[in-house]
Amino acid sequence: MKILVAGAQGQLARALVDAARVRRGFDVVVMGRPQLDLRDTATVAQAFAAVEPDLLINAAAYTAVDKAESDPAAALAINRDGAAALAAVADGYACPVIHLSTDYVFDGTKAEPYVESDRVGPASVYGRSKLEGEIAVMAANARHVILRTAWLYAPYGLNFLRTVVRLARERPQLRIVADQWGNPTYVPHLAHAVLSIAAQIGAAAPGAGMWGTYHGAAGGETTWAGFAAEIIRVGAPHGLPTVPVVPIATDEYPVAARRPANSRLDCTKLARTFGVRLPPWQQGVEECLPRLIRETRV
Ligand SMILES: NC(=O)c1ccc[n+]([C@@H]2O[C@H](COP(=O)([O-])OP(=O)(O)OC[C@H]3O[C@@H](n4cnc5c(N)ncnc54)[C@H](OP(=O)(O)O)[C@@H]3O)[C@@H](O)[C@H]2O)c1
């Protein structure tokens, strides 16, 4: 199956390339700016004509959550209009799309994990731009899987785990928000889940009930402080300083964008429909840290 991945340098795009190397049957072509620029519709059409994929994965996005508050036009241009342009061109080729979205489409007031049919209500510009992207993708291409994921981290890219590792080497203690709950998701685990979905919807006659919106994040749940404490614990035998993690409230760490207090995702529908369940978040930390520390120490 030939897959076009938009977002060449991103965390998920990189992990998809790695995952396709160890699984049979996927010919993954990643394309990023300037060859495939979501703000330039002509490049979108050219990329499709050049690759003629069986399936599109949109892993490109404006992901700077705080910066988006002061640059909503750019966030909407990429996350809504760019996503729609990609999905529409794919539709012209009768090509299905897996479109990545976020837990930040929710306002965080629910007490339990969110299911796909729960009321959305993004608290940030980024969340709104991703929600509008979901709606635009649905309208542009009926053959869509919208996969909401959360709190991504990998040994590469910009993410919380890498920030904690850097700060643990620089500071005597870490003050980390302890009143936001979510599912820290290891990107290589997500990439394998995405390829498993791809194999099923790319089949000659995919089940009619497969199109729609899904939640796909790591098993289990924690806070940013809990995530940080686990990073320090797992990193210690690999030489990471065992600095204390001091839990703080959201108000004590002012940032531009409001985050939901609860953005835990219930991923039952994904397991039921595709037989795909991501490993527990702690397993991701165990796999990621030795790799990161090894790679950054050489
Ligand atoms: N990161 C998270 O914690 C998180 C959480 C929930 C959901 N998600 C969603 O998961 C998906 C993958 O996230 P990620 O963490 O892998 O993102 P990422 O590492 O920030 O990568 C995003 C990629 O999008 C590309 N991009 C930005 N603007 C573009 C444009 N105009 N045209 C083409 N490409 C463009 C960037 O290219 P450049 O390298 O050229 O800048 C970058 O390679 C996104 O849909 C994101 O919204 C992420």
What can you see in these coordinates?
The chain has 298 residues and is an alpha/beta fold. The chain has one domain (2-157, 184-219, 263-279): Rossmann fold, CATH 3.40.50.720. It is built from 9 helices and 12 strands. It has helices at residues 11-22, 41-51, 72-92, 125-140, 160-170, 187-201, 224-235, 268-274, 281-297; strands at residues 2-6, 27-31, 55-58, 97-102, 144-149, 152-153, 174-177, 181-182, 185-186, 212-215, 222-223, 245-248. A 6-stranded parallel sheet has the order 2-1-3-4-5-10, sandwiched between helices. Strands 6-9 form a two-stranded parallel ribbon. A two-stranded parallel ribbon has the order 7-12. α3 packs parallel to α4 (125-140). The longest helix is centred in the N-terminal third of the chain and has 21 residues, at 72-92. Bound molecules: NADP nicotinamide-adenine-dinucleotide phosphate. NADP nicotinamide-adenine-dinucleotide phosphate is lined by residues 7-12, 32-33, 36-39, 59-63, 78, 82, 100, 102-103, 130, 149-152, 157.
Q: What is the structural class? A: alpha/beta
The proportion of residues forming helix, as a percent range, comes to 40-55%
Strand content: 15-25%
Average pLDDT works out at 96
Q: What is the topology?
A:
Elements: E1 2-6, H1 11-22, E2 27-31, H2 41-51, E3 55-58, H3 72-92, E4 97-102, H4 125-140, E5 144-149, E6 152-153, H5 160-170, E7 174-177, E8 181-182, E9 185-186, H6 187-201, E10 212-215, E11 222-223, H7 224-235, E12 245-248, H8 268-274, H9 281-297
Helix pairs in contact: 1-6, 2-3, 3-4, 5-7, 7-9
The structure holds NADP nicotinamide-adenine-dinucleotide phosphate.
